[in-house]
Design goal:
single chain, about 280 residues, 6 strands, mainly alpha, 3-stranded antiparallel β-sheet
Length: about 280
Amino acid sequence: MALRTILDTLEELDEPLRALYIKNDETGKYVLEIEGIDDHPVVHALKNAYNQEKLKRVQDHTRTVEVEERLKSFPEDFDPEKWVTYKAADEAGLLDDPEVDPRSDPRGTPSDAQKTRAMMQARLDNQKRDHEKKVGDLSQELEKKNVVINRLVVEDGLTKALVESNVDKRFLKAAKALLRPLVKIQEDGEDFIPVVEVDGDNIQLSKYVGDWIETDEGKPFIAPASGTGAPGGGRPEAQIRNPWMKEHHNLTEQGRILRENPQLAERLSKEAGIKIVPAA
């Protein structure tokens, strides 16, 4: 049975599966914690569609510029049909024949040239309008897809960074509202990376949030710890929450504490009623 990404309640889930969900304070729903969201088929499909539409828009623009540049080089009285006739007559040597009646000259009279030019200009204007409409429609569709991609990448990246930085769930919504305007998307090939610009440089969102949480502005958002002690990093013990507790379950944070401070990991796991099996 596949796990649903969003649930209204966890009552129907088995106890081991409930730890895989985290409650979203904004919606009140339970969201499945997913690693590698960029590899998800839906997001991957949106990214591919975005790249294809972007390439198509560039190609359409290039064609328009090429057509306009070529038309600039045409004489004002240019007539495609008369040009073909004139070229054929010239290649046949008829234009050098003194017996050819000048009135039959396929280049036409000035009045004919003016009419032809007006007709070609009208045709060109119609083609240009059709092209602009097509480009406009594609741009709107591309913008919609871009908005969806940005929302997925920014929201997922921001939520993940704040959770990993031990931001209290009660303040998660406020922290996201504070930081969201700073986040932008950086394209790296087919990847979309959430970053924050600092002094002209793009800093990955996870690093920025990790630094921000240590500032006077960020410290009030840190969740209080369920246990005591702290594994390095300079954070006060009272600001470390217990990732082994059901309400704060976080496998990534467990691994970090196990690596940095095994004694603290053992104490916090015992407080949660879990016994850690030492690595062989």
